Amino acid sequence: MIPLSNPWGYVVENEAPWGAFTAQKCRLLTRNRQTDTNRMTNPTILTRQGFPFAFDPAACETCEGRCCNGESGNIWVTRDESRALAHALGITPEAFARDYLKKVGYRVSIGERQEGENFACLLYDRNKGGCSAYEARPAQCRTFPFWDYFRERPHEAAAECPGVILDESCPDHR
């Protein structure tokens, strides 16, 4: 489970298998972010080497789970992650597996529900505007938007996530 002292789940000091995140102070200039008082009071953003953008985790507070909705896809989970998610929801691992997981080939993914033309993660709580098990979300969710897919598509990342910052003043954004 992610410690409460690190609710965003980002690795800042220790290298993780998917690469470490680095906290940076950068100017928040793009897409009219200079008018957002929340970002102006908390200018610490995250970068990941090799990615041409940064991420402002404060945007999650007002985003309402755009990363949890959209095209159909898979959110891969490990056995340990599924146990942590079950614990966070207050259900047994068996109930979580039955109600929330699907097998895709040799892997396991959190299921999704269709909502109109889009899909939503089964853990997405529309009333809350976010993940029903946010503190225990899997690594794939914690590392968003720093996915390999977005490495070469930074403008797609920015369109999907209001926390993505395309700013040449930040390191590693070339």
UniProtKB/TrEMBL annotation:
Domain of life, per UniProt, equals Bacteria
Q: Which PANTHER family match?
A: PUTATIVE-RELATED (PTHR35866), YKGJ FAMILY CYSTEINE CLUSTER PROTEIN (PTHR35866:SF1)
Protein's UniProt name: Putative zinc- or iron-chelating domain containing protein
Protein species of origin: Desulfoluna butyratoxydans
